């Protein structure tokens, strides 16, 4: 028989803070549960309260695994849990699939043939490697016959893995126009895999697939983890891809493990990265005992915003039927549609309206401008700057993707993993007169010596003797000798024999080595120094280099790390705005061809068009109080002197649901 322990006395009154549907999900003892509900209905809140409640019921925090779409989301949820329960939630495993995979692989990657201290290649590193390999395997074809760029090779490779198909299948289904290059692509992919292994490095996709492999092939590790986790909870389940769904089923495969996933099929917007909305549709098939909870109240938005969002998504055919009732009273204004004469004027409207709202006392942090593609934000950025309105951008280049930060991180990576080819090449290519070919020769020399040393010291994971000695025999062209010796001497400084330097000390030293290169390369040298200052500040509480480097690599994927300034307006792509909310939301560039994107219109693929509409739905449902939808009738940037009709997403909205603002 099953005997349920009550929460400890003095706990929270969950029934009072949740509606009955949420409460039922929070307190369920179903082994498998799916919470499926529309935007703003408190799915994330339900998960947060469930974690708090589990702790109150005596579940040890280290037996809970919380998977979220960004590491930031996990942090925020766990902070919330800590306030709810009044105790630390520190030992809960929370984060993205990638970060959890990294954590497990750090312990067990040797079982898969990796060496300790593997590096993580981010998108930029991957592209660098693909570029080098393209040169090697498709050298002549490249110029003559439109050989795919590194970006394309990377997307194709990644899409195949994340949809669980072979790259050949993906090539013929999604990249048919590249089929004539199949042979060369195959060689490049094979070499790519070998080079990664030789570099003791994993890319983001490897983190997922290697975890799957580890769990499938190593019964002891699988059993260990399955016994460890009593509760696996997943937010934004609609955006899981094939390896992620497999990880969930493996991690939650224990006898006593309960699994709760929450999601909204209408918000699935990552199919281009292999996410498959079918996982949510099929949850009850995969887990026949699953209990389904539906929340039908929306707490986020005023009724007028909810109505327009419901009307928009109603045009999609394939979805769980959901009715959302508003919990809030109506606000002061209907959603506004604003046709602007052109993109500059649209931006001027946004800036002026934000200025008014802020003057009326609404803090910048409650306002967001959302768009489909990063470059759509250009005019708004300029106008906000002109009007002295502070903003932060969560799309575009992120902190750790910037060249100068990556240069510094490369030194640290090479120090912890002497086989890291990408890091090595990055460092030596900052030396004057070193091109791809020279870098390749230096790498061969370096690698030979590194391997020789490591073979003599099989227990060491890094080179523990001064590099100036270990690398003394590397052949170096005469002109490069002074700089090569300086490089080795610098590495020696980073690795003093008597003590281990902290990450902060290391970064400061490397910044010193790099300063000449930076002054010569970057016009805004001073600003870049400030970034490095920021880097050392965020490192201050980080004790060891390995965990710092994994964090850097994982952060650069979907997270934003710059701290939120309370007065700053947010500029974000809609993809990055998932799960978030603001009092006031502007959605810009809603012209046909801009959103939905003209490529989707041209392809005529109904699935792609439905995904565009879901993206639009995600944008609308971010708004709590006020919603502004604007478009430029004439767009000077992307359509030379072209007229731009309003998006079909706007023209299909019932007129009574919005107000037209004429500028
Ligand atoms: P999305 O689909 O966008 O991820 P969601 O379903 O995860 O949305 P939440 O972000 O959890 O929704 O909640 C939306 C807002 O509604 C939050 O501000 C949350 O605090 C509030 N909310 C949710 N449930 C309740 C409730 N029972 N009482 C009061 N406020 C609530
Ligand atoms: Mg949510």
Describe this structure in words.
With 663 residues, this protein is an alpha/beta fold. The chain is 49% helix and 12% strand. It is built from 28 helices and 18 strands. Strands 11, 12, 13, 14, 15, 16, 17 and 18 form an eight-stranded mixed beta sheet that branches. A six-stranded parallel beta sheet has the order 3-2-6-7-1-8, sandwiched between helices. It has a two-stranded parallel sheet with strand order 4-5. Helix 12 (242-251) links the parallel strand 6 and strand 7. Helix 15 runs antiparallel to helix 27. The radius of gyration is 26 Å and the shape is globular. The termini are far apart. It binds adenosine-5'-triphosphate (ATP) and magnesium ion. Magnesium ion is lined by residues 43-44, 579.
Distance between termini? Answer: 69 Å
Q: Would you report the number of β strands?
A: 18
Radius of gyration, in angstroms, nearest whole number:
26 Å
Give the helix tally: 28
**Proportion of beta-strand residues:** 5-15%
Q: What share of the residues lie within helices? A: 40-55%
Question: Which small compounds were modeled alongside the protein?
Answer: adenosine-5'-triphosphate, magnesium ion
Sheet having the most strands: 8 strands, mixed
Structural class: alpha/beta
> Judging from the principal axes of the Cα atoms, what is the shape?
globular
- Contiguous runs where pLDDT drops below 50 for at least 5 residues: 558-562
- Compute the average pLDDT: 86
Oligomer: single chain
